[in-house]
Amino acid sequence: MKLVLFDVDGTLLDSQHLIHACLVETFRGMGRPPLPRAEMLSIVGLSLVPAIQRLFGDDTSADDIDKAAAFYRDAFLARVNDPAFAPPLFPGAAEAVAELRRRDDVILGLATGKSRRGVDRILESFGWEGLFATIQTADTAPSKPDPGMIVQGAGEVGLRPEDAIMIGDTSFDILMGRRAGARTIGVSWGNHPVSELTEAGADHIIDDFAQLLPLVEAFKVTEPQ
Known about the structure:
With 225 residues, the protein is an alpha/beta fold. The protein folds into two domains: 145 residues, HAD superfamily/HAD-like (Rossmann fold, 3-Layer(aba) Sandwich); 70 residues, DNA polymerase, domain 1. Helix content is 44%, strand content 12%. It contains ten helices and six strands, in the order βαααααβαβαβαβαβα. The protein is globular, with a radius of gyration of 17 Å.
């Protein structure tokens, strides 16, 4: 049995437009000029407070980090039900998840820097309730690239971290997977360039979801010594 863990933003879900808009409003709310789009989106995958801290800098006070995080949450809640900001799935994502769900040697999971409430909203919108056996979020696990999400997720389904495959679009996903002892697959369509995924040590890089299924099929779980 193998655990296939997906990141959400930038891997399954094309949420760049929504996240960027919320970050722009956050910077303006804090009286700062927004950073370039690519720089702001480079923090996608981290939990909210570490992400804000990385963007605003280590010399920013804890109070200002908390204030900026509150601006972001308010900006997100103001847009989350607006159809203009509704993030779609990437092409092939729904089909890949459905195909993996049919396999009797695969357990599906999510590992994301989003809150559980945000994840539940996404699952409901795509009819994915009950599809993922383990859901690791910023509410209950340390931020990527700490390996905690994979360690906890594997434990919840009775597997080892080395029985897992982590699929994500950022170096945070890849580093988390490597630190946990999992296999890692980077996707080329997300928030970090392929060069960063490769540098982080991704075992494979895919350009579309059709390339994922053969890699999952080829992954052989090693028996404990």
